[in-house]
Amino acid sequence: MSKAFKNKNEVVNAINNVSFNIQKGKITCLLGENGAGKSTLIKCLVDLIIPDNGTIQYHIGDNPLSQIGCILEGERNVYYYLTVYDNLFYFGKLNKLKRKQLNHRIDEVLEALDLLHKKFTYVAELSRGMQQKVALAIVMIRDPELLILDEPTLGLDVQSTHHLMEYLLKLTNEGKTIILTTHQMDVAEQLADQIILYKDGCILKDVSKQELFASFQNECIIHIVTDKKVTGYICDDMIYRIEMNELSKFIQKATEQNIQIKEITTEKQDLKSIFVHLMGEYDD
Questions:
Q1: Exposed, middle or buried: residue 260 (CB in 10 Å: 0-12, 13-18, 19+)?
Q2: Which structural domain, as residue segments, surrounds residue 151?
Q3: Domain ABC transporter: where (predicted)?
Q4: Which of 2, 8, 15, 24 is CA-nearest to residue 178?
Q5: CB 40 within 8 A of CB 49
Q6: 3-class DSSP assignment, residue 87
Q7: Does 273 fall in a domain?
Q8: Is residue 174 domain-shared with residue 196, that is, in the same domain?
Q9: One domain, residues 65 and 134
């Protein structure tokens, strides 16, 4: 799939011959820098932008778009001067839910998102984080099979983020499929089953989280504490940061200089460090 836009005298390839599969019942995190083309890709997936070429195939019924719930970053999908209940009731009726079924569904979704106590509060009176949860509740009211969430934790405090993450994991345990974009690497690291790293309209990596971390296993950083300075290495208060492939060489140097190694620990390899490394590697 490809999509290009004309920007004055240049052509910007927001999607450059991209191909990928999304696994049912899993959370796929689409990660990239600002301007990478993630929003364009998402809008193509929900038929808001027509790609220049390529096709999108869904396996979620005869009318797939009716089985997709989507939140786009910065897009307003709530009415601020209606109550939480009125918003959900309105969008539920638009989706042709019957009143009895709808009222039960409203309570079910609000309880899951810890919003039941705000049921009759005007959305304008809620915090930004709670407004974000109302936006998600609106998406969930018709119980879609596929959720596409663009920065869903934006504006949420730590507790609300944790609660939302638990809810998303619960949904996948129930068989729902989620595509998630976020700049919060700790959120992606905890939630993702599959990770797509995206830059300048291209996919750099499309792997499982386990495969991604395994590929960087030999590139981790070792912290070494010695009793004296090792010639040829920079330290901070006798603490050295050494790449794994340099470890044996460092130990040999320390032994030759009759220096005692007091402690060796491994620096945790996290998704943020891997992301920064890969984005920088692509620039090079």
A1: exposed
A2: 3-214
A3: 3-225
A4: 24
A5: yes
A6: helix
A7: no
A8: yes
A9: yes
